[in-house]
Design brief:
Layout lengths: L2 H9 L7 H13 L5 E3 L2 E3 L5 H23 L4 H41 L10 E2 L1 H22 L15
Antiparallel strand pairs: 1-2, 1-3
């Protein structure tokens, strides 16, 4: 079997829509290894922080759910919705808290150095979102939007209806 035949089979697979959250799950998991906040040359966030471990775990869970959906041909959009929402909330909250904490620590460090050396305090660079936050938020958004498709689209009975035996 050639590579083109494999790609053609993947493109005609009945659950090919789940390739999107599969790739987004890999992107979410990889964002845990990237810095989330940049202050000058200092990189903050990601692993080994607890939020980094949570984002890594949620990314791998999204990959697992999407892969199981492709393999078993069963719907898993509800759990993907929850995974995407949780990852988005963790990343957004961690980014806000890290930004504030990093700015306060840099200001305190600048003030302490100025007191010890007797000079004026150095200018503190403003914290900015780094690549890891952008990749993680985008991936979590894709996973969330994919999970929302079952709610918005009103899919025709995603699960089998039980038959009425009393008739």
């Amino acid at each position: 079997m050639s590579f083109l035949q494999v790609l053609g089979g993947a493109a005609r697979h009945s659950m090919r829509a789940y390739y999107l959250p599969l790739l987004a799950g890999f992107a979410l998991a990889s964002s845990a290894f990237m810095p989330w906040i940049m202050m000058g040359e200092q990189r903050i966030g990601g692993l080994p922080s607890p939020a980094g471990f949570w984002v890594l775990g949620l990314g791998l869970l999204a990959v697992l759910l999407a892969a199981l959906s492709v393999i078993t041909r069963k719907n898993s959009r509800h759990p993907l919705l929850l995974v995407g929402l949780a990852a988005f909330a963790i990343l957004l909250t961690a980014e806000r808290l890290l930004e504030r904490t990093a700015a306060q620590q840099a200001w305190a460090r600048s003030q302490a150095r100025a007191i010890v050396s007797g000079d004026t305090p150095a200018a503190v660079p403003d914290p900015a979102m780094a690549l890891g936050t952008w990749v993680g938020l985008a991936a979590a958004g894709v996973i969330t939007l994919f999970g929302l498709t079952i709610v918005v689209r009103q899919a025709a009975q995603p699960y089998a209806e039980p038959e009425d035996d009393d008739v």
